Amino acid sequence: RQRGGEPAAELNYRLKWLYNINTAGDLYAQEHGFFTSRGLKVTVKPGGPERDAIRELELGRAQFGVASADQVIRALAKGAPIVVIAQLFQQNPLQWIYRSAGACYASPRQLRGKTVGITFGGNDETIMRALLAKYRIAPDEVNLFSVRYDYTPFYRGEVDLWPIYRNAEGIVIAEKMAKAGEQTGFFVPDLFAVRFVANSLITTRSMLEENPGVVRSFRDALLSAWQEAMAPANAARTIALVHAYDQGTPAEIIAKQLDATRQLMLPENGRLGRIDVAAWQQTEKIMLEQGVIDSPVAVEKALLPDGL
Amino acid sequence: MLLQCLNISYRYPQGDALVFRDLNCRLADPGFHGLFGPSGVGKSTLARIMAGEISGFTGEIKRRDRAGILYSCNTERLPGWSSVGDHLTKVTPAANLPLLRELITAFDLGSCVDSRFSQLSLGQKNRANLTRYLLQDFDLLIMDESLANVDEATRKQIIVTIKQIFPDRYFLYISHSVAEVATFCARILVLRDIHKSPQLIEVAGRDHHGDAVPDRPALERAMLEIVHAA
Amino acid sequence: MLLQCLNISYRYPQGDALVFRDLNCRLADPGFHGLFGPSGVGKSTLARIMAGEISGFTGEIKRRDRAGILYSCNTERLPGWSSVGDHLTKVTPAANLPLLRELITAFDLGSCVDSRFSQLSLGQKNRANLTRYLLQDFDLLIMDESLANVDEATRKQIIVTIKQIFPDRYFLYISHSVAEVATFCARILVLRDIHKSPQLIEVAGRDHHGDAVPDRPALERAMLEIVHAA
Amino acid sequence: MLHKRLSQFLIIYFLGLGLLLAVKYCFGLSDYVIPGFTDMQNTAQAVAAGYLRAVLDTLGVAVIGHVLAIALATVVAIVGRPDNLLGTMIKTAAYNLQAYPIVAVAPIIFILLGDGLPSRLLIAAIICYFPLLLSFIGILGEPVAGIEHFYVVTGRMRWQLEVKIRAFENIHKLITVVTGSATLAMVGTIVAEFIGADSGIGYSLRIALYQSDIAKVLVALFLIGVFNSLYLVALELLGLAVRKRMGVEQRTQQ
Amino acid sequence: MLHKRLSQFLIIYFLGLGLLLAVKYCFGLSDYVIPGFTDMQNTAQAVAAGYLRAVLDTLGVAVIGHVLAIALATVVAIVGRPDNLLGTMIKTAAYNLQAYPIVAVAPIIFILLGDGLPSRLLIAAIICYFPLLLSFIGILGEPVAGIEHFYVVTGRMRWQLEVKIRAFENIHKLITVVTGSATLAMVGTIVAEFIGADSGIGYSLRIALYQSDIAKVLVALFLIGVFNSLYLVALELLGLAVRKRMGVEQRTQQ
Ligand SMILES: Nc1ncnc2c1ncn2[C@@H]1O[C@H](COP(=O)(O)OP(=O)(O)OP(=O)(O)O)[C@@H](O)[C@H]1O
Ligand SMILES: Nc1ncnc2c1ncn2[C@@H]1O[C@H](COP(=O)(O)OP(=O)(O)OP(=O)(O)O)[C@@H](O)[C@H]1O
Ligand SMILES: [Mg+2]
Ligand SMILES: [Mg+2]
């Protein structure tokens, strides 16, 4: 069991999700030698619903991973020795899709009387409840609908807003509905000052202490890869690369996903990988208020914006 | 003539030797017919061929039109979910219910009607099973060692009762007791080794009805004839 | 004295009537003992009590120290996955292999050794099953209608062979043939209705060994005595 | 029996727990990966009441689902018994239904039936019925020659009788399978709740998993195990009663 | 046999498809709820090759998982046969393992075993083994008095012989259950892939579901059904061969 390991040792990098647009930079780094050029031997492993990068880090099966902020905060609350070395999404891709024909949600107050899909126990529940609290909407003023992975209730109009990953499934579903002549829009909590951080890059504290150089090289490699992958000039390469790993998704869709992803990772005058400490603190505060964690964890101590 | 077997030859699908070669026999008149022969010679097989339960033989079976032929044997069981009496009543056509009562007495089954089949002794099982067949509508009933586990006195009583009640039916009685077939059967089909020709010989029996004392010397002659034939 | 039953009373757990009341019997000397009685009187039950396969009776069974008692009956089967011959060989202690060959000949099983058990006739099944018990190490072998489906000639040959080969062993032979038990058994335990007292009577048989011609009048007397006892 | 089943379950459960804790302390893992003992205790206290209600809820649905599954398996096994076209078609349909993972079929079920109790019951029943079906087909498809002969040759055989004979002859096996499949009814219900319901222990489990809260998962598994044992005991007692009423002998006396 | 099984499956499949399309056109549902026929055709052409490879991949794992499950069920049924402490403990463990939905147990399996092939095989085997176990316990636990008596009273009974006798006496039932559980091995593998793998048709299904692409799901179900039928036929032929070699008679002649 290796924890940290020698600089030349093999590194495992556990993603949060299946290969798709959200792993574009990771694949790019692997495919175009960003790791090897820095002397790193990295195996990129896809994630999934039963994969938890944090557990793998602790078990020594991986040295780096991607986890969402709420996972990180939960783990910190339970004493997991992990640190955040980069924040991938600047805006949370978890948003709500709706039919824009009859509605436009300029303010959360318009949610009153609507049926809103949430995954009970999921992030989207925490975010939506925080939003409702912030805008003083009593939970019984909206109908919360428990969602599953199949979209039928939304398709059939039983649910007005459906939680979705904006840059992945969001594109697919919007596209599908557009084909049938239905226009869609996305409800974005970030726009209403509920900033709940999503995917970020993590490693263990011991890895950081024993091999700070490796950690730095890894982060730099990955962020440069993302930077290049997101660059409009490289779009064709990126699309082809993602399509090679995610053959279920047509290239045209991936192109659109790429555009959406770029906006989430690189907003106007943003910097890729920037750790937005305030957003993390707000995330922690929301989780505390929603009772997801029992006591503060001081998440800023686990964030390493430039401490490398 | 109820039934005639013409030039029957048969080999079991999994067996390698012929059981019958060009066997002929017939049941011409009603009454008790015996089927006798050493163990393994093919009595059960012949009986099941007659009843239509085995096919794949060569030769021909001629049956009287709409002849009802039933085959019963001593390894059959009654279902276990209710008492023997209930099962017997259930399979008895309403018109035969008095007959059922008569048979239960004659077959000494009175103490068994409230028991489950699995709680009977072997001989009781034999008798319960035979009883239900007798209550059916049949022209020929084949009894393949149906009374093998019953004591001689009861067996005698049963045979005599059957002969009394069903004088017009055909019975083919398979048994290993020479004395019994010689005493009670009118004709005895003696089945012999396949290498003997003919494979089946018919011998006359005493066709005793249980009324008079049997003629001892005549019976012994019949027995001897049977044993010699076999 | 191999075995003694003292004041045995028994009722089946699911049955409502007593099968035995204060029954006494014993097997004093080696040889062929008969157990005779009408169907349903309790022969199989008594045999299984002797063999220790039924418990829950009152009274006492005295067995000679380390007495090996085996119970066999005609409803047993051999497994189906290999031939009868293979099964027999497999359960025969090496020292008894010549004996196995001898028995196969004497029991006329030569044509069956290559067949599966399910392909045998009833009488062949009886014989194959009995054979394997005889090859075991035992002091008393109970044969509960073990030859019920075998023809008389073969049965006689089998009994004579057994008596020749195992002169020092005890056998308890259950059969419904008066003539047979009277001829071949030294002593016959006649089991009677539970209302008769004593429930079990011992009668002397002719203990015939198949060598000389049997003494006919003596045999008939023995048979009469048995029938009267029952 | 109750006592035995429960104590067996507890031994197994705590053995498993001990293994997990051993892994935790050997490798120095945090409470996030494997919760510590006090963490579990606290969680247990916090969620026990709610989870208990949820498990009872689930058990109720499971019992109905189990009955449904038994009925379904019986019907399919009976109808699929004869070797005619309809029979084999129904058997094929029944087999193929099972070839699909419920997660893939569930959306279609939800489309066709909506997402009320019927869908949940159906999913529970589907998961539980297949093992029953396999045994039932095996048992109901195999003639009991010694008993059936009479009814066949006297023209008395009806399918009801045939089924009755074969079922009765194999009553011990049937009871084993029916009792054992209770467990699957529980699982089926839990999975259905996991996929699409908003109550029951399956729903609680899903939330605990979303929250990566292994302590809650372990508490839920504990309660599921306890109530599963209780249900099994109840069925075993029922099986005994059935056997007794039918006058089936005990095995050892056969 | 092959021909029969396949055509049966096709009939069932297209009946189901017809039902879906009927629902679609009756209620005027749009293409994203239930895809239209041409949509399905296009999807089929687009993904057929990839899905075919995936299904073959899955089938390979399923076969191994099936063998594992049979071995597991046999061992548990044999060890759990006697009524001693160890036996009942093992049976309890085996039953309780099944009481937990695999989705709840999977995280723990992944913690303990990592996410390689072993975990996937284990999950596939667990899903498939329980129905086998139930039948095996039922069959191996019930004495065959007529045959066993001799071996018991002559002191020759060993557990191997006991198992052999009971298995052989119930060979038709065993073959039915083993063949039927092939389906569950497929499902088990698919679920394992669904939960945690990155190849196989289960993985493809998961992606299709996340993309809410019913057309793809239907294509996947089609291929699963076809290969499932093929596997069943293969096993049935094997069963026939086994029966023949063992010299078991055909049912009708018993
Ligand atoms: N299923 C079978 N497959 C192959 N051979 C068989 C089968 N059943 C019986 N045989 C053989 O056919 C022959 C005749 O058997 P059958 O049962 O007809 O004899 P039987 O005259 O009734 O004998 P018994 O008096 O012992 O009952 C025997 O040699 C037997 O071994
Ligand atoms: N399991 C049982 N439960 C209840 N009663 C039984 C059981 N087995 C046998 N009996 C009854 O006990 C009595 C004696 O049965 P047993 O089998 O000992 O008779 P038997 O003398 O061997 O008769 P047979 O010559 O017909 O074999 C019978 O009246 C029978 O009905
Ligand atoms: Mg015969
Ligand atoms: Mg008896």
Contiguous runs where pLDDT drops below 50 for at least 5 residues of chain A: 1-7
Assess the beta-strand content of chain A as a share of residues: 15-25%
Strand content of chain B: 15-25%
Q: Please state the CA-atom Rg of chain A, rounded to the nearest Å.
A: 19 Å
**Quaternary structure classification:** heteropentamer
CATH superfamily of chain B: P-loop containing nucleotide triphosphate hydrolases
Q: Provide the spatial order of strands within the biggest beta sheet of chain A.
A: 2-1-3-10-4
Topology:
The complex is a heteropentamer, with one copy of chain A (308 residues), two copies of chain B (230 residues) and two copies of chain D (254 residues).
Chain A: E1 10-14, H1 24-31, E2 41-45, H2 53-59, E3 64-68, H3 69-77, E4 82-87, E5 94-99, E6 115-118, H4 123-134, E7 143-146, H5 152-155, E8 161-165, H6 169-179, E9 184-187, E10 199-204, H7 205-210, H8 212-230, H9 235-245, H10 251-265, H11 277-289
Parallel strand pairs in A: 1-2, 1-3, 6-7
Antiparallel strand pairs in A: 3-10, 4-10, 5-8, 5-9
Helix pairs in contact in A: 1-8, 1-9, 9-10
Chain B: E1 3-11, E2 18-27, E3 31-36, H1 43-50, E4 58-63, E5 69-73, H2 84-90, H3 97-106, H4 122-134, E6 140-144, H5 152-165, E7 170-174, H6 178-184, E8 187-191, E9 200-204, H7 216-229
Parallel strand pairs in B: 3-7, 3-8, 5-6, 6-7
Antiparallel strand pairs in B: 1-2, 1-4, 8-9
Chain D: H1 2-27, H2 37-79, H3 85-99, H4 102-113, H5 117-140, H6 145-153, H7 159-169, H8 171-196, H9 201-210, H10 214-246
Helix pairs in contact in D: 1-10, 2-5, 2-8, 2-10, 4-5, 5-8, 8-9, 8-10, 9-10
Residues 43-44, 144 of chain C line the site of one magnesium ion (MG).
Task: Based on the model shown, name its key terms.
heteropentamer; A: 308 residues; alpha/beta; five-stranded mixed beta sheet; 11 helices; globular; disordered N terminus; D: 254 residues; mainly alpha; MetI-like fold; 10 helices; elongated; binds magnesium ion
Short overview:
Chain B is an alpha/beta fold and 230 residues long.
